């Protein structure tokens, strides 16, 4: 259960602080305890060690509280996360990615990231990391105490031209639910801007593919 709560905290943090230039992963769950709050739910207090995979030498510690509400399957867990220390700045990488996408003559379209051999072309790595931001939101919003979601693959992504300054990507991501072993396709639209970060504007769950 503590590992499932840690996955929720990581998803939440990816949504808030992730981007095309930052790949947050859980390196270690240092400490966890659960508190049962009468008529409210179960609250997990976690101490996590995180790493940015793009900056291997540095880890940051983080404390998180994840509260699952009793009986209410439709309400997302309440999450609070405090990062101790500084995450590496991604300002330059973000701006570079933004400029590159804005200058494309036709909208970016891609499928199967990573491919069946686990490969991600370097130019699609930021697109995959943005899918991590989007799936972070999905994991936070849809997790219960009995689920553990993991982004398995970007099935497809299509950039949509906009009249404002945001970049828009329409994704279909495959989320692997580790407990039931279901693979769930999810349509999710993410808007992103280097100054404002990412936000999910729409999402729709599709029927699962069944185990494996």
UniProtKB/TrEMBL annotation:
Keywords, sorted A to Z: Protease inhibitor, Repeat
Gene3D superfamilies to which the protein is assigned, alphabetical: 3.10.450.10
Matches recorded under SUPFAM superfamilies: Cystatin/monellin
Family membership noted in the UniProt record: Belongs to the protease inhibitor I47 (latexin) family.
One Pfam family of this chain: LXN
Organism: Origma solitaria
GO cellular component terms attached to this protein's record: extracellular space
Domain Cystatin LXN-type: 1-92, 109-212
UniProt-listed InterPro entries: CYSTATIN_LXN, Cystatin_sf, Latexin
GO MF annotations in UniProt: metalloendopeptidase inhibitor activity
Protein name, UniProt field: LXN protein
Name of the encoding gene: Lxn
Tagged with keyword NAD: no
Statement: the UniProt record of this protein carries the keyword Repeat: yes
């Amino acid at each position: 259960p503590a590992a499932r709560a840690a996955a929720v905290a990581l998803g939440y943090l990816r949504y808030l602080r992730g981007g095309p230039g930052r790949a947050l992963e859980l390196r270690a769950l240092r400490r966890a305890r659960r508190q049962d709050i009468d008529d409210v739910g179960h609250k997990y207090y976690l101490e996590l060690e995180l790493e940015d995979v793009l900056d291997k030498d540095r880890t940051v510690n983080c404390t998180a509280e994840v509260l699952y509400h009793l009986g209410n399957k439709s309400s997302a867990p309440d999450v609070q996360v405090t990062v101790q220390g500084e995450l590496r700045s991604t300002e330059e990488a973000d701006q570079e990615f933004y400029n590159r996408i804005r200058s494309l003559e036709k909208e970016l379209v891609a499928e199967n990231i990573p491919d069946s051999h686990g490969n991600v072309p370097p130019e699609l790595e930021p697109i995959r990391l943005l899918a991590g931001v989007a799936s972070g939101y999905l994991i936070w919003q849809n997790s219960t105490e009995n689920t553990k979601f993991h982004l398995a693959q970007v099935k497809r992504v299509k950039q949509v031209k906009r009249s404002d300054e945001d970049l828009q990507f329409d994704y279909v991501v495959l989320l692997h639910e580790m407990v039931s072993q279901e693979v769930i396709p999810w349509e999710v639209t993410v808007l992103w801007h280097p100054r404002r970060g990412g936000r999910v504007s729409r999402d729709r769950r599709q029927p699962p593919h069944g185990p494996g």
